Amino acid sequence: MSVPDEQIHPVATSRAAETVAQHQSPQDLVFWSGWFCPFNQRVWITLEEKGIPYQYKEVNPYKKEKYFLELNPKGLVPAVEYKGRALYESIVLCEFLEEAYGSYTPSLLPADPYERARVRIWIDHASKNFVPASHRLLMAQGKEKEDAARQELYEAEKKLAEEVKGPYFLGEEFSLLDIIIAPWAARKYILVEHRGYDLDGVGAKWRAYLERLSARESVIKTSSDTDKLQVIYDRYLRDEAQSEAAKAIRAGRPLP
User: Fold this and answer.
1) Which residue in the list 8, 16, 20, 37 is annotated as catalytic?
2) What is the reported pTM?
């Protein structure tokens, strides 16, 4: 996500800042992070849910270290360095953490192969439909485009809502699919305030699900002050953002 360097807050704030402070000691796993990025927050939530030891390093989106660019040539967060080896892409990283730290609980994917595959099917839906629709609504300009984007988002959410067992997607078990959706649930207030999004537009069950995700301790612990986040999202609301995600939405390409 892109805003002028002098405007973007350089580090996490609020509860997220407290979490950062607790993860400064060297560890086998280094988490290269951007406090404001929802894709990044997926990995951060996973680390906190499983209690994995990690060292937090903030990436300046405008002055990326040469070392970081060697780790991830895309120059995008999140990325991790695991025992000196680099990995990136948020969903890949979440699954890697689940596998590499399998002895850490809770498990974020079902033990049953069928249910595990089913979770991955709905992760794919969230990635290809829910998240892009959220970004299109955020960036839509004019009532006609906003209305169309809002309806597209509702349709993507209805399909997910039908599968939510409650309180989480799989029932009592908090899973990787919940993590994939949680950062956008926590940011829904932006669409409510600026794009006419109705939390009850898909029904009470979906609203309750979003609110439950937003209230999850791992989500709160990785969230910064809303006023710092608003500075970034104002650029999206004006369709001026120059992030790779914004460029992809404008070009009609899949999100990077």
Assistant:
1) 37
2) 0.96
